[in-house]
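Subject: for your reference before the review

Hello V.,

The reviewers asked for a structural picture of the protein, and I figured it would be easier to keep everything in one thread rather than splitting it across files. Below is the amino acid sequence we used in the manuscript, unchanged from the supplementary table.
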Amino acid sequence: MEGFPEIESRSKGAWLTWKDLWVTVTDEKSRSKPEPILKEVTGYAEPGEVLAVMGPSGCGKTVLLDALAGRLRSNMRHNGDILLNGQKQGLAFGNSAYVGQRDILMETLTVREAIYYSALLQLPNSIPKSDKLTRADMVINKMGLEDCRNKIIGGRTLTSISGGQRRRVSICMEIIKRPKLLFLDEPTSGLDSAGSYHVMSYIIKFAEEEGVTVIASIHQPNSEVFELFHKLCLLSYGKLVYFGPVSNANTFFSWYGFPCPSMRNPSDHYLRTINNDFELELEGKISTENAINFLVRAYKSSEEYQQVQTRVFEICQHESQMQERRSETSFITQSLVLTQRSFINMYRDVGYYRLRLGIYVGICLFLGLLFRGLDDTYASIQARVLMLVFIAGFLTFMAIGGFPSFVEDMKIFHQERLNGYYGVGAFVLSNTISSLPYLFIISFIPGAITYYLSGLRTQFQYFIFFALLLFATMTLVESMMMIVASIVPDFLMGIITGSGIQSLMMLTAGFFRTPNQLIKPIFKYPMYYISFGTYANQGFFKNEFNGLVFYNGDKDHGEQMLKGEDILKNNLQVQVSYSKWFDLAILLGMIMIYRFIFFVIIKVFEIRQKRSYKKR
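And here is what came back from the structure prediction:
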């Protein structure tokens, strides 16, 4: 057929078609009838060209991009054929790049660092690091980011670069790998007219030179930017008003009675004609709603419509499997780069560990002074128990304070995973390794303050175990909060959920009610045995009480009252059949289990997303 020679000559690119595409949304609460967002939309995108998707706010531009990229929300379904090179293929997880409306960036990195780390994660190992840095600098210069290359991106807690600069950073991070298929959701958002023109000029030149297929939603471009695009997809409230070359759009509107005035921006004229939010009479003859319906019907009977149908048919007839893009960097490289990036982020983000360290030091200083002067009298038994339970329960409870940072990490992971930066295993491993030094610091320094101020057993080996147990407990609680962050990606709901889980763990840990007093169903079996507080308390108690003898007066004149072993066995009902090191080992094992659960949850969500796209 007529289009085949051109398709064959550029078969290595991404030829995307969609035919009779419907997208519906269901209200999951009311379970009402699915409501259509897109209705019978047909079009295509070719290598080396940029397709502009335009329309009024709420017309379905972003939904169209999400549907084509395989990123629809769980309450949305699509019907119709979406084919890549004539075949149904998943476009998420590395087969395409997507820059969404929200710029999800690591706020503690500089502009140059963010783009350089993107290059390290996506470009092949065969490319030297110096060349990757050179490419990152080249993209920064092309996007006009030279003046802010060394500035912190900023966001939730830091303020630095502007919204328009953030938008360009997001684009740079995706185009640096030269993807075959690129989706841009309002790439000019936050940019002035000059900035919009320069950014889009570079993107269009990039598409033409690299043979990249680009689909971009544009809200309201100026005339210079509008003329840069190759093709236009014009939507109005889910209906297709026009699809075809940008140069033919004015002819189409003029032919059907809506010519663009000579001194008006064509894109402004088209959007004004098909915007039904404000009821205006067009050309003094027809209402906006009637104009939209008329243009939709006119397009379906037009020559442009027939040309689109023919072109979609030609592309679909020429089937070729685009090789699924897998990460070109090794697992080790991904893990090392992610660990380094995460380590820097944790250091610079005040709320991650630095603020917690300061609070821990203050609390532990107060705690040590409060229990200062512990001796071997009977009165010190209760004081030791209360202080150790506070450390095991309430001090580790403050790990919830890092939850907002965990949520931000998960947002970045989901975006970068969908764009194929790295795998789930590399993320989980790097997140674990990078956090360990900081957890070690916030365990040992505050722990040492409390331990020696209060007068617990002064021998160094007992302090080492105390600090290791505190470190293991904090690491375990943080692992649990990462699981919560992967399931409940909302600050307030996540903190409430995490607080509830930790409260249950503390209540069933054998202190507030001894093990023999716990109700056997649920409270003792299984809660007592799966609560991390059980093994934290037992480890602290064994470390402190084993080998001690307590008197009811001073050591020289008082009578011997209790051995530490008797207190453990009879009063605290601690399992003395195994050593304190076994309690520590159990906590370390629970950390591994929690991290594995974290990995499985993320992987299951990923598999479900892939399967749901195939079913839709």
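For the response letter, the relevant points are probably these. The longest helix spans residues 580-615. DSSP finds 22 helices and 15 strands in the chain.

Happy to draft the paragraph if you're swamped.

O.
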